[in-house]
Amino acid sequence: MSRRRLLGTVGAAGATGLALGAAGGVGVYAAASGPDSGSGSSPALTTVGSTEAMFHGKHQAGITTPLQSRGHLIAFDLAPGAGRKEAAALLRRWSATAADLMAGRAPATDTGIARDAGPSSLTVTFGFGRTFFDRTGLTARRPAELDPLPPFSSDALDPKRSEGDLWVQIGADDALVAFHALRALQKDAGPAAKVRWQMNGFNRSPGATARPMTARNLMGQVDGTNNPKRTDPDFDRRIFVPSGGPQPWMAGGSYAVVRRIRMLLDDWEQLSLAKQEQVIGRRKSDGAPLTGGTETTPLDLDKFGPDGKLVIPDNAHARISAPEQNGGAAMLRRPFSFHDGIAPDGTPDAGLLFVCWQADPLKGFVPVQRKLDRGDALSPFLRHEASGLFAVPGGPAKGEYVGQRLLES
Length: 409
Prior knowledge:
The radius of gyration is 21 Å and the shape is globular. Helix 3 runs antiparallel to helix 5 (175-189). The longest helix has 19 residues, at 84-102. Strands 5, 6, 7, 8 and 9 form a 5-stranded antiparallel sheet that branches. Strand 7 and strand 8 form a beta hairpin. It has 409 residues and is of the alpha+beta class. Mean pLDDT is 89; it is low at 1-40. The chain has one domain (1-409). Helix content is 22%, strand content 18%. It contains 11 helices and 9 strands.
């Protein structure tokens, strides 16, 4: 019996939840019903469990899916001696388990962790790191886009929590459903792969606010306003790998840059509200530019104040990261916040599990981060502690497993 069946009769409320779950989103919950969508209200919490994401399709789930309230990022290394054959068997197992869980079906050896829950928008996304291709004898099919990211001055990277042969992103609108998937996939790995690192994240739950809103990060800032939208005419070109490229197995896929970014919250919170807004270039209350308007009003980067200074300072985060300041470079940001306790010095070990998606990281993440690295006013309050770059192939067709076109071609 599916977990969804155990919910009982959902009725009209459940139908509303399913409609919202099927809506195309781009990186924030508000993308499905945000300030520019015209939607009127959040789903009631009782409908959250009924939403279902599709495992099969042109693209993998978890890329354009609206932000989920709970997430796990986990990287694996293939075991010594494991190669292409073992990797194919692992991806076949993982794909079967992910398809069941995303549909609300319990695996044969289910632990019962999420027995009473529906699918809760569960998504499971799989990617390959640079070293995966060496370990499987597929170096000739490694995309050039997986070349190592350049170093940045704000990097304080822990190699033990960076990169990996295989990467899995799990997201759901229920913490137990997300953990259930994490546990099932870890068990499925068996002797073929071992965990390299694992990180846990969260976002605001759908229905927790009086109206749908763009997410806030742990600094209290509205985060995700300028994300590309599925309605943008160039969205697919910027985010997804087209057909006909040098690596056909990546058609419909994307590249994920993953960064664990520690926020120095004690230092940030010492700043006055006015200074915080100058650092970001937006109002903290509603995310609107300092030059006026609403959250979605374009930045007026040429506006000067009565004091003769730029209203949005030249080193403000919003200015430096704006696509028009970076030759149109854009990436789809889909992060999770994290809090891993209190450090020995008494500061919170908290921040952002930054995940961004693009058709080519050399045209998305890298140019923007290089520019931020040279003079972003936010940089003194951030520390990049882990990093990874992964090739995420297109979604599997019915009867396929993720990565089959690479591993069996």
